[in-house]
User: Which sequence fits this backbone?
């Protein structure tokens, strides 16, 4: 939280594959799951 207020970041996608990646990545981040180094994972850097 920034300054006691909640915020949300809106992501833009260019194609279906990018949309799927964002939709699988963000819930994991919201649940507090960390990143990993597995190629193709939705939680890579």
Assistant:
């Amino acid at each position: 939280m920034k300054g006691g207020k909640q915020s949300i970041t809106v992501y833009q996608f260019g194609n279906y594959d990018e949309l799927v990646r964002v939709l699988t990545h963000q819930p994991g981040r919201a649940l507090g799951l960390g990143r990993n180094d597995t190629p193709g994972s939705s939680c890579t850097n």
Residues 6-32 form one domain. The helical segments are 16-30. The mean pLDDT is 77. Residues 16-30 form the longest helix (15 residues).
